[in-house]
Design goal:
Elements (H helix, E strand, L loop, with lengths): L1 H13 L2 H7 E9 L8 E4 L1 H13 L2 E18 L2 E12 L8 E9 L2 E9 L1 H9 L16 H6 L1
Parallel strand pairs: 1-6
Antiparallel strand pairs: 1-2, 3-4, 4-5, 5-6
Helix pairs in contact: 1-2
Length: 153
Amino acid sequence: MSITVKAFYQAVLAGDVAALERLIDDGFCLICPTQDHVLSGVYEGKQRFFNDVMPRVFGCVNPEEIAFCQAHQIVVEAGEVVVAMAQNAGLAKSSERYDQIYLHVFKVRAGKIVALIECFDTALANRALWQGGDPLIPNHLPALSNLAHFQQA
């Protein structure tokens, strides 16, 4: 399972959308366990991730000035679950540094990422990327019960 996660990080770093599309399952769900931020709650479906979430993040950076997930490390692998941390290095379009650190909990099955819990510094993201922008409306509002989406994926 960690091979899939490493391939995910390599694709993000390279900006290789085709590789990401191969790695992410159609039923993928992204869980952002935060309250009242641009990305908060559960975003369901591969197409939702590519059509809504990715543009909201990557549209706020110039690819030549930032390296997403430049550094990454697997913390633990247990069956279908892989816990990892990653760090960006570079500038957002706002000219503010976006050296974000992520905690990721992946669920991987048959070489595909079926679910991802993503924890990050929301204050940094709101300031550097979104500067008070409107939230991306989730499929499910933030709640601890959203863990069921990960468990059932």
